[in-house]
Write a structure and sequence with these properties.
heterodimer; A: 122 residues; mainly beta; four-stranded antiparallel β-sheet; 0% helix; B: 108 residues; globular
Chain lengths: 122, 108
């Protein structure tokens, strides 16, 4: 069974870059040709926000509100994908989830990591 | 607008039907999914492609979409269904997602 696990610093200073990784186990990113890999965040006590996704072919799509600061990439050699969010502010403090979803159609996000809490503070 | 609006809360008696709406511009042109999130837990997909249930989701969960509104219906609501529910739309033209504002379902 495919599982996702987020990793990265739990504390980031304002104006710096948040870097998170998502390790995939129980399956291979490189063999998952029909799937994309993405990131979702949820501020404490608030709703879900899609950040961005990357397809098997490496095509990326981002939330327009974050597009200028976000980058999602894949490292098939490590069987993981990553998120970078630049120039963070307090508004970026959230629980960050990595997810898997079929690339085509509205099939939804069927596998979720447990999430990693990120605080923004000096 | 790229926003999806949901009622903040819905209350339902056990055994009754809970109806949660999700409204957005041209929502009928997009695929809609629904997620259930219980306190302290990861969201779980309960409906995809407007009305399809993933394996393992009880039949009491159903979805529909028409015009600018999508609807999640929980028939015969049980105490275990108490949770936050989020709609999500996928825009095939831009390959982007947007989530709804979320609805807290309380089973009284």
């Amino acid at each position: 069974q495919l599982q996702l696990q987020e990793s990265g610093p739990g504390l980031v200073r304002p104006s710096e870059t948040l870097s998170l990784a998502c390790s995939v186990s129980g399956g291979s990113i490189s063999s998952s040709r029909s799937y994309s890999w993405g990131w979702i965040r949820q501020p404490p006590g608030r709703g879900l926000e899609w950040i961005g996704s990357i397809s098997h072919e490496g095509s990326t799509s981002y939330n327009p509100s974050l597009k200028s600061r976000v980058s999602v990439s894949v490292d098939t050699s490590k069987n993981q994908f990553s998120l970078e969010l630049t120039f963070v502010t307090a508004a970026d403090a959230s629980l960050y989830y990595c997810v898997r979803h079929p690339t085509t159609g509205g099939y939804g996000m069927d596998v979720w990591g447990r999430g990693i809490a990120v605080t923004v503070s000096s | 607008s790229n926003e999806l609006s949901q009622p903040p809360s819905v209350s339902v008696s056990p055994g009754q039907t809970a109806t949660i709406t999700c409204s957005g511009d041209k929502l009928g042109d997009k695929y809609v999914c629904w997620y259930q999130q219980k306190p302290g837990q990861t969201p779980r997909l309960v409906i995809h492609q407007d009305s399809r249930r993933p394996s393992g989701i009880p039949e009491r969960f159903s979805g529909s979409s028409s015009g600018n509104t999508a609807t999640l219906t929980i028939g015969g609501t049980q105490a275990m269904d108490e949770a936050d529910y989020y709609c999500q739309a996928w825009d095939v033209r831009t390959a982007t997602f947007v989530f709804g504002t979320g609805t807290k379902v309380t089973v009284l």
